[in-house]
Every structure is written in structure tokens, then in C-alpha cells.
Request: fold
Amino acid sequence: MQEECEELYGNPMYFKKTSYPVLIASHTQPFIEYDENEAYDPNNGLPLSRTIDSLFNLKYISFSDQG
Reply:
């Protein structure tokens, strides 16, 4: 995934592992609904806090196509 991020963003920012992670990698679309190529698309993810990720997964919040 690192190579894909570098290709998309040039100089990507990486999150360091901490003993208490604040952000987690979240899929914008359910991972299980994609074929192998789509599932690993770097555009199908974003960093979210655990609280926001939970609300997003439960469909209490969403994002428009414009962000």
C-alpha cells in the first residue's frame, strides 16, 4: 500500500504506531463488497478516530462526493 500512496500523493504522511492509537484506517466503502483490485485501492480509505469510524460504519454520518 505504501507504493500506491506514494504514486497518488508523492510524499505521503505516515502514521506512527503508538501504544494508544488515535486514528485507524477506515474504508470508505465496505471492504467485502469489492473485488481484489478495488478492495486495495488507496482511494477507498481514510484515517478516522475510532468514534467517528464507528458512527460512519453504523451510517449515522456520511460524506458527500465533495468531501
In short: Residues 41 and 64 are 19 Å apart (CA to CA).
